[in-house]
Amino acid sequence: MIGARNFAPLVAVLLLAACVAPPPPVADLKPGERPDINSDEAGLWMQMDQVEEMLKTSGHVVEDRKLNDYIRSVTCKLSAEYCQHLRLFVVQTPHFNASMAPNGTMQVWTGTLLRAQNEAQLAYILGHEMAHYIRRHSVQKWRSIRRTTDSMAFMGDLAQIVAMTSVLAFSRDHERESDDIGFDLMVKAGYDPAEAPKTWRALLAERDADGEEKDKPSVFFSSHPAVEERVETLDAKAAPLAGQGIVGDKPYVNAVKRHRRAWLKDEMRKRDFAGTQVVLANLAAAGHPAGDIKFFEGELYRLRGDEGDLKEAIVAYRSAIKAKGAPVEVHRSLGLAYWKTRQNKLARKSFSRYLAAAPKAEDRAMIQSYIDQLK
Amino acid sequence: MSLAVNGNGNIKGWYYFLVVAAFGLFLGGCTTSMTESYTGGTANQETVKLDTKKARVVLIPLDIKLTELTVAGLEEPKAAWTEQARKHVTDGLTAALAEQGLTLRPYKKPAKSTSLRRDEQLEKLHATVGGTILFHHYGQMYRLPTKKGEMDWTLGATARQMGGEQNAEFALYVFLRDSYATGGRKAAVVVSRILGGTTQAGERVGFASLVDLRTGKIAWFNALYSDSGDVREAEPARKVVDNLLSGFPS
To answer: Are A190 and A319 part of one and the same domain?
Structure first.
């Protein structure tokens, strides 16, 4: 039976559909265009100008000029007209994300740079962010939120929930549009389209690495489309064009290699060991030196410390030493792993090797004391 | 507009919200009855002497943002209002202190990037320390036992370097956040108050600090909280400035 009481929410929802229809479409931002100072958009710009001032002096901004120039050069390959109006900030945080503010402040997180495997993937990510700027998604979203919450002020709970889901649906549409435009920009710039969906596929592999069922947010309450959907859409777009164009693994690996160790150390601190294993495998596949990757694999086992992990760590450290490019700390770590497994002779030998390779190490005195204890 | 969903909350935003909300509660008590500006009291007033004729005081560019409150209470930042207010409050500060015989010195933007960075860090620090004073000094319930009720705050010794470069003994910092209601919001407030609610129509939270650049210590501090007045126009802005400067050392 549908009584009047049960019927009321439905009426509210129907009425709401009228009030919270998305605001009228906006034109693209022209290169160099600034919004009128009396507009709502100018307010958003002012707010982000202030955030940008704070960001400029943040200790988390990676200032390496070569790296910044490299990323900037990729944005300019995507769009020479727009790139000069963007300000790039590489922000040290070990998660996968990037963001674009309405005023052109673009953040790229180091966790993203650690995960991208080549220039084509970076281009897709930057193209996605540039699309937010060009399509003025921030002001569109703000207007949608404002209109929706205005109409919500006197609504009941259910109607408010419905209203918020419409805002989020609008947000998901923006993400889809940015995926689309980002893809088109990278293809136009000559990059291999097949790399775009790979970005998301790697993220899925990382998410599902521990084999546990994740609480996926409901499709109605998410600001971004499901990753699976994004892979599917991009796969379909890339299929007819795949294999054509630049991948750019060498220039990319070259640009990020100086930071690899610092970023991997940050990555380890997340203690998402299964996910980090996927990241390490992808780095090896992208052409980063095996010695380094194996060293961090060893660190991962040693940190995790599950049954048998110390043995695994020793195997990884030893192959890191055999391969090229391992940091000298590999001897110290191996020494610690030997010590913990009561292989004191081997531990002493590894510690001595560490001190021989790094005679000016800050922890020299401590390691020397270990050697003395192990005698 | 980010690339992917991420779990990072805006901690700073929440902290600011907390400070403002707490400040409103502590000073406002019952917000509906508050029509006059409230000046929260000053710090170390008796200990600070300022020879206004001779003292060299640099005015740091204001940390100011004006917003419009939507019907639902969201804040829409307003660029034009903020620019007007920046001008009126700066002019007001200059005029008010000139009447006391003090000529404020304009801040000279350093050419050296390290100096500029240091000064910007000091501005950020001032906003944070000021918010902390509001919360832990004005907020009686959250007094820090180690402070023993004293107004004992500092921006640290790096302020001395700025003092040297700006050729100043003191720096005046002002932080101001101000919001105004839309027509729809005003209606919502009326309805809410009829129903016994406490919906706000807009409020102003601000504070000013006189920092001794020879030590970095905050020599004088004053805060205001108000839900009336207007800094978008010259004349009412001057009233807000006078409130903010009440108890300024002389």
So the answer is: no
